[in-house]
Design brief:
Helices cover about 0% and strands about 50% of the residues. It has no helices and 17 strands. Strand 1 and strand 2 form a beta hairpin. The radius of gyration is 17 Å and the shape is globular.
Length: about 200
Amino acid sequence: MRISLAVAHRGAAVLVWLAVCAPSKAQPWFRGLGFLPGGSGSWAKAVSGDGSVVVGGGPSAAIPPGEAFRWEHGVMTGLGQLPGFHNPGSGAQAVSRDGTTVAGSSGSNLAEPEAFRWRDGLMVGLGDLPNGASASVAWGVSGDGAVVVGYSDAAGSEAFRWENGQMTALPGPWGIFFQNTTSAQAVSDDGSIIVGYGGS
């Protein structure tokens, strides 16, 4: 059995990979994942179910403020950003179980920032909830990549669930939360259970 975890130390701009082998008493080992072309730092945010794909962000020559990346088989690939130059930059926050779908946020023409879903080489903006400040961030993605969750600025921060091109607000159990603050942080493998937080 192999358990893998990606961690990062921003101060030293070092990204490492920790692998623990069990049940043997093998020593943990660390592997740097490298940087995007022209970059000088990187940070990991999530790892696929089998540990073969890592996602995160780091500066690059193409997007100096930071660009989302996907790392697999020793190669770190920049995912770019959504069209537009409001708040330039992007970052990946979550990856599906099989590593094919990535979720995060990016500067765009629509929002500052806008949640995105990346799959098959294409980054798609997820939009935002109505009557808000044109901003959304994705924090989690289901095992098959079909469901994305996060928050959007809509009269405050409001949790959302996105599926099949539709972003839906997730109202709190008591209606309006204290200071209108909710955020979805993670979603189950099948997309049916969502966890997050909210003042009440």
